[in-house]
């Protein structure tokens, strides 16, 4: 007996609103009793951390033992579909005998927007009374199948409702996010094991709606001033040590006008401000260059010239890993641009007025996209990825070493001062580059308005007035209909012996606004999608123990 899963026209990766369809192929060489064929679309965010050696370092989890490894597993995506027999067939129906050969069943899912681990109704599908695989009906030993996972454990964790996170397997043994389609072939019988198979896929979320383009910019700037050069070490601007005699009674004055300290006007130390600017809010895009502007501003009246000699741009990613009170932050750096040996002037000329600005040519970095191992910014229940941008700029006073001056063929001597200026952008967002559908932005604005209107109309609850007397209240107040008892979907009422499963007397809860919009919007076009960006191996062995 063998089982396989095949996707229909799989893209490089899936995203929100995509339709994941395919086939389950079961091959058997002898007749087999099959209870049901269940296909699941699942996504898991797993973390595992080791307790510190000193208990005082972790006040949130004082009961953990030394070096104890704790796990936290969130079912960020969970959808179930029974492909055989039809979902209209009750779960307590007897198993069906399949003839030898190959049997094929089709499945189809639509990827939602947000994670589902905080939704008790979605987690109730993991285990319960109704549906295939639950406790139901007069099958062998009175059970149609036993589920080993308990969705109630998800309710003990802290959850956030956010967009589904991207696939990630960059920290083996510590954190991973996986998405997969899993099939379970239920075989009734005490000594028969259910047949399972799963296949993973890459997932990259749709980016949130971008704000409108404005002239606002986020900037990081740093002014600097060089130290005055010592007399005799200023290079060509220093007056000669042995000037020519004009007569036997005196010396000829130098052509340069010297100040009291013996330095000329060209030796006055320059003062320049370098500012790096990004569009506000600071948003970068996977597989695209950084939209940076580098501007130099003259601050002091000096004829001295400054040059940009080196530039290094690094993207710093911080991954926050949480597991039952333990928190660890892993820092990863990507070198986006690294340029050395430059001689880019930072002024138009030596006679520039104070306050004049000059923008450095963006050719230094506009051809360098972000590395394809950078994943988008995301926040989920036990994992978070944030970014910062760091620049290190080398600036020299005078021609950099190894360059040639105008009209001369010999190299300029190494008499320059060089400063290295760090610039830092915090709170940088990295988007996936997957543009949301046209109706998504309008839907998000409508949902935000509805939430604001609901919160503004909901006033403080007023305390009921005391009842005057029982007789008057019995006459004036109408009798209320009996209220149905509310039951937790994870803990349904127990059935008495011989009592059947009665259908509920109420309809299912209506879908939320996000679910309704997800069903109404069309998937993102495959042709216009960018390339994959991130670190994952969707079908690699699991590096974390499977614990809820």
UniProtKB/TrEMBL annotation:
A Pfam short name: Arrestin_N
Gene Ontology cellular component list: cytosol; plasma membrane
Cited SUPFAM superfamilies: E set domains
Record's compositionally biased regions (Polar residues): 444-454, 534-548
Annotated Arrestin-like N-terminal domain residues: 3-117
GO molecular function: protein-macromolecule adaptor activity; ubiquitin protein ligase binding
Source superkingdom: Eukaryota
Biased composition (Low complexity): 455-478
Coiled-coil region list: none
Cleaved signal peptide residues: none
UniProt region (Disordered), positions on chain: 225-273, 441-548
Any Gene Ontology biological process: ubiquitin-dependent endocytosis
UniProt name for this protein: Arrestin-like N-terminal domain-containing protein
Organism expressing this protein natively: Cryphonectria parasitica (strain ATCC 38755 / EP155)
């Amino acid at each position: 007996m063998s089982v396989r899963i095949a996707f229909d026209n799989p893209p490089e990766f899936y995203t929100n609103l995509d339709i994941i369809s395919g086939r389950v192929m079961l091959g058997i060489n002898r007749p087999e009793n099959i209870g049901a064929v269940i296909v699941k679309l699942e996504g898991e965010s797993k973390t595992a951390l080791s307790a510190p050696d000193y208990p005082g370092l972790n006040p949130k989890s004082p009961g953990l033992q030394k070096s104890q490894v704790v796990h936290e597993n969130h079912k960020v995506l969970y959808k179930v579909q029974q492909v055989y027999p039809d979902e209209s067939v009750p779960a307590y129906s007897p198993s069906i005998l399949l003839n030898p050969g190959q049997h094929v069943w089709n499945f189809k899912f639509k990827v939602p927007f947000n994670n589902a681990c905080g939704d008790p109704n979605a987690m109730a599908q993991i285990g319960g009374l109704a549906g295939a695989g639950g406790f139901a009906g007069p099958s062998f030993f009175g059970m149609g199948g036993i589920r080993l996972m308990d969705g109630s454990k998800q309710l003990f964790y802290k959850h956030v409702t956010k967009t589904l996170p991207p696939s990630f397997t960059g920290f083996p043994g510590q954190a991973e996010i996986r998405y997969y389609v899993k099939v379970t072939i239920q075989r009734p019988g005490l000594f028969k094991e259910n047949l399972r198979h799963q296949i993973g896929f890459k997932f990259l979320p749709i980016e949130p709606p971008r704000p409108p383009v404005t002239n606002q910019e986020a900037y990081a700037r740093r002014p600097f001033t060089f130290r005055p050069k010592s007399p005799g070490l200023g290079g060509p601007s220093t007056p000669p040590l042995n000037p020519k005699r004009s007569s036997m009674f005196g010396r000829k004055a130098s052509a340069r006008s010297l100040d009291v300290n013996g330095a000329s006007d060209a030796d006055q130390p320059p003062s320049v401000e370098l500012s790096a600017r990004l569009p506000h809010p600071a948003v970068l895009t996977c597989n695209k260059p950084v939209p940076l502007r580098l501007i130099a501003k003259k601050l002091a009246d000096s004829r001295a010239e400054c040059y940009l000699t080196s530039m290094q741009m690094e993207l710093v990613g911080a991954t926050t890993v949480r597991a039952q009170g333990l928190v660890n932050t892993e820092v990863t750096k990507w070198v986006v641009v690294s340029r050395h040996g430059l001689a880019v002037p930072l002024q138009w000329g030596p006679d520039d007025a104070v306050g004049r600005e000059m923008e450095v040519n963006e050719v230094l970095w506009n051809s360098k996209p972000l590395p394809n191992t950078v994943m988008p910014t995301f926040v989920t229940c036990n994992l978070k990825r944030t970014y910062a941008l760091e620049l290190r700029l080398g600036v020299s006073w005078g021609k950099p070493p190894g360059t040639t001056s105008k009209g001369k063929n010999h190299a300029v001597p190494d008499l320059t001062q060089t400063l290295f200026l760090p610039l830092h952008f915090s709170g940088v967002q990295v988007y996936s580059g997957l543009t949301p559908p046209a109706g998504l932005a309008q839907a998000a604005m409508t949902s935000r308005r509805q939430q604001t209107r609901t919160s503004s109309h909901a006033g403080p609850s007023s305390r009921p007035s005391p009842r005057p007397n029982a007789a008057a209240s019995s006459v004036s107040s109408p009798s209320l209909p009996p209220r149905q008892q509310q039951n937790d979907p994870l803990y349904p009422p127990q059935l008495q012996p011989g009592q059947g499963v009665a259908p509920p007397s109420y309809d299912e809860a209506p879908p939320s606004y996000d679910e309704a919009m997800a069903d109404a919007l069309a998937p993102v076009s495959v042709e216009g999608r960018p390339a994959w960006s991130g670190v994952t191996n969707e079908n690699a062995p699991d590096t974390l123990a499977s614990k809820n």
